[in-house]
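ok so I'm stuck.
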Amino acid sequence: MSATHYETLGIATNASDDEILIAYRRLAMKWHPDRNLKNIAEAERLFKDIQVAYDVLSSPERRRLYDATINNVFFEDDAQDDDDDGFWERPERTRNPFGAGSRWAPPPERGDDVTVKVSISVETAYKGGTIKVDVPYDVTCRSCNGTGDGPRMQACEKCAGSGWRDGGSGYRSCRTCGGAGRTWRCDACDGKGEVRIVAKKEIDLPRGLVDGLRFRIVGDGYDGANGGKSGDLFLSIKVRKTGSVRLTGLDLHREMKIDFVTAALGGPADVLIFGTVFTVEIPPMTRAGKILKLAGKGIRHAKTQEVGDILLKVVIDLPRGKMTDSQRAMLANMFGGGRIVG
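replied:
not stuck anymore, here's the structure
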């Protein structure tokens, strides 16, 4: 019969959390594969069993379910078949990743989500596009296999080497070092058991992503456990100003230069925005600073499908160089000439 998790850690079934942690750290250091190079296969097997046992017993919920399993908490109908002599045999099941001695698999657990803040241009918000994103993941440290233990002993940082910590109502054993005052802290992960890696990803964004939206990439979060689905990656969107174009809500704002003649006489004028040419009808006698609107040509919200406008602020581009006397006379004749008062 396979050993129970309690037997694997060499503790009683009523062991406290501190006793479980102390036993785990002691055995993990003893059977770490890097310290048993002459018998590495056996060390790897025992080390894995120790990790699984601790993973189960350190969680109150998993420990409760596991205790129910090893204590034969099963139910049966009152009626018995005539040929079973009144005995009920617990069905055998294939050994599974829940750990040594367990006959019931834990439920699948979905992986955690990852959220990254990204800054995109107004053009990307308007048209969509591909962006490069650095996504941080915390993964199991390969140097210590997630134990946080290293090859050399050093004073515990949490209790300053005393083995005790002030719990408010009195001193209690330090859970970090198990009361030993010393730890075998891994230098690679600083005893955390995890290291941060950065994955570089290229992600295609649809148009219409504006401030405050979150874009989800399914399955790019952390891996699930026990056959569970992976979590998702969420991009928290922030739109930055791009060149001469700024964004307010779903409206695009920019300046539009027109010449003096067009401002005075009116007529069509073209404006280029993110590779698209829009033709705008300029009213006669348009003054500088006037706002011209292209209705429904702004950003289309990716979620609500609401559409904004393009708002163009008129800037009059005056002719450069000196005017001839005839040109001056013509303008004076058109606009009345003289000094404008009031």
